[in-house]
Amino acid sequence: MSAVGTERRTIRVTVNGAVYERDVEARLLLSDFLRHELGLTGTHVGCEHGVCGACTVLLDGEPVRSCLLFAVQVDGHAIETVEGLAPRDGELHPLQRAFWEKHGLQCGYCTPGMLMVLKAFLAEHPDPTEEEIREAISGNLCRCTGYQNIVEAARYAAQLLRSS
Ligand code: FES
Ligand code: FES
What we know:
Bound molecules: FE2/S2 (inorganic) cluster
Structural class: alpha+beta
Strand content: 15-25%
Distance between the termini: 55 Å
Order of helices and strands: EEHEEEHHHH
């Protein structure tokens, strides 16, 4: 029997449409799997305690905090990270364009988490009120912006998505 914390498992995960099979330690966090095993460093890690929302990714379309999941827990599932947003190199997803045009970021540390939580939210709320947007991002902390431009960017992204 292997020592606690060193047990390994082979997992097969779809990330941004590509299938990856990796042998990982059972205790490896999903955030570390994405960043260190797959090199997808767009997913940021802030608190590592489920508080800040910076590490948010989509698990089968639903926002989750990747610092609160083990990689083995997503075996057989689909993950989407910020790297999967843009339709192709050199283009921006409407959410990215909206954050860019409405100055929805400063240091950018919270931005990947904001984008992913908003992607799931706007899919279900195509024409949200400001209050609904504020509620949707209430679990994502930003130290820089005061949130106003993030809310404006989310509203503009909703408009772009409705007209696309
Ligand atoms: S790093 Fe995961 S919630 Fe803060
Ligand atoms: S833009 Fe700096 S933490 Fe949000």
